[in-house]
Design a protein that fits this description.
Blueprint (H helix, E strand, L loop, with lengths): L9 E5 L3 H12 L4 E5 L2 H11 L3 E5 L7 H11 L4 E6 L4 H8 L4 E4 L4 H47 L1
Helix pairs in contact: 1-5, 2-3
């Protein structure tokens, strides 16, 4: 059973490499992140939908061939996490396909400080983008509502 963790960033790692998992777990858990690990795409999809991680770190070798599939999982979860890809430089074509959709690409082997700062930077950027989208939506509603409000006030004053 998955438990919700309050006031902590939840991280989901999709990887089969124990060395990668251990490095990321040690670095992020020391900074207060709650970490869950999965080793296959199907389990990762389920956890994205129900665990709703704030950060999704995936080995590019375990991701589907095209990014649209993972984006549909984010849409089902109704949450778009910070999406980071781990790669070792071998799958350049697949990396290029995911480049547009990921927030950051992490090169393996990791430098501890560099890894944490890249993750923190990606999380902050993702938060800013989502805040901007939210406030743009509110501003649009206000722009659409304002003429109706003026019209309503005009009709009331005529009576």
């Amino acid at each position: 059973m998955l438990q919700k963790v309050k006031d902590r960033q939840k991280v989901l790692i999709l990887s089969k490499e124990k060395e990668i998992e251990n490095d990321i777990c040690i670095i992020l858990s020391s900074h207060g992140y709650s970490i869950d690990i999965t080793e296959n795409e199907i389990e990762a999809e389920e956890k994205i939908i129900y665990y709703k991680p704030s950060i999704f770190i995936a080995d590019i070798n375990l991701l589907p061939e095209y990014p649209e599939k993972i984006l549909s999982v984010f849409n089902k979860a109704r949450k778009i996490p910070t999406f980071l890809i781990i790669e070792d430089g071998k799958l350049k074509e697949k990396q290029n396909r995911f480049l547009e959709y990921s927030d950051e690409i992490l090169q393996f082997p990791f430098n501890e400080d560099n890894l944490y700062h890249k993750i923190k930077k990606a999380v902050n950027y993702n938060r800013i983008v989502h805040d901007n989208e939210y406030y743009e939506g509110i501003f649009l509603v206000i722009k659409l509502f304002f003429p109706l409000l003026v019209l309503f006030l005009f009709v009331i004053t005529l009576q």
